[in-house]
Design a protein that fits this description.
Distance between the termini: 100 Å
Number of strands: 9
Radius of gyration: 38 Å
Number of helices: 6
Shape: elongated
Largest sheet: 4 strands, antiparallel
Structural class: alpha+beta
Order of helices and strands: HHEEEEHEHEHHEEE
Length: 259
């Protein structure tokens, strides 16, 4: 059997390239005879250092290969097995690239007891007002008023313009935005609904909170251009019943227009 040509850049070593059976035996000792398939190639890794590869027959590792690295000392024909490892091939099923836990989370993943701290440099946040002790309005320990929350008093960080834009884009394109299927079929928008609770701040110009328990948006932030069938001013269609007609004998209800 002629060994496949080496694809490495190091000088070809005829003894190492020809040592297919030595490499196969090392793979068999590591994995078992039934798990080592055909020889698939050899690569010169460095001077007098070659790696032979064999197909892996383990059904749990389809597309993987056994890699056996051989070496020898200068002017010696004695082949030494350096290592035997299982490597993924181009068609192997491998785990996706690792991501930190904080980056793997998706909306809805956070559960009771979970903690996800915001990064110190989170672009969605900027520093709130400082020097609160110098402001008469917060000199006492009484709770802050909503107007003071709005300008950032009592909070170390507040939403940045980028954070507001992200939230706005997310809400507009979400289930309670103007492009939602329910909004497309609604006869009126939330901006004219009596169940709409206004929001303060810049986002209050485009969003509000729904307070209608019948609406699917109850308790959610909705775009003012959203709408649903539970609008406060929607009027039910009045059912028109056919009038009754009197015949010559008695009062039998006859539908007008029918004989």
């Amino acid at each position: 059997m002629t060994p496949p040509a080496s694809t490495g850049t190091a000088k070809r070593d005829a003894a190492l390239v020809a040592a297919i059976e030595t490499a196969r035996q090392a793979a068999v000792e590591e994995a078992g005879a039934g798990m080592v398939g055909d020889h698939t190639g050899v690569v010169m890794e460095d001077e007098r250092l070659a790696t032979h590869t064999f197909a892996c027959l383990n059904p749990a590792y389809v597309g993987w290969m056994w890699a056996v690295t051989l070496t020898r000392v200068s002017r010696s024909k004695h082949i030494t097995v350096n290592e035997v490892v299982l490597l993924s091939g181009p068609d192997a099923i491998v785990a996706p690239e690792w991501l930190p836990w904080s980056e793997r989370l998706r909306p809805g993943d956070l559960g009771p007891g979970d903690v996800l701290p915001a990064a110190p440099d989170d672009p969605r946040l900027i520093a709130g007002l400082t020097g609160e002790d110098d402001l008469e309005s917060v000199a006492s320990q009484s709770p802050l008023h909503p107007g003071e929350w709005e300008i950032g008093l009592g909070r170390i960080r507040v939403l940045s313009p980028l954070g507001r834009d992200d939230a706005s884009d997310r809400w507009v394109s979400g289930d309670f935005g103007p492009l939602a299927p329910m909004a497309r079929q609604a006869s009126a928008e939330c901006s004219t609904c009596g169940f709409m609770l206004p929001m303060g701040g810049p986002l209050g110009q485009s969003f509000a909170v729904c307070a209608n328990e019948i609406s699917p948006a109850d308790g959610h932030v909705v775009a003012l251009t959203f709408g649903c069938g539970a609008h406060s001013e929607v009027e039910a269609e009045v059912e028109v019943r056919p009038a009754a007609a009197q015949d010559e004998i008695g009062w039998d209800p006859l539908e007008l227009g029918h004989s």
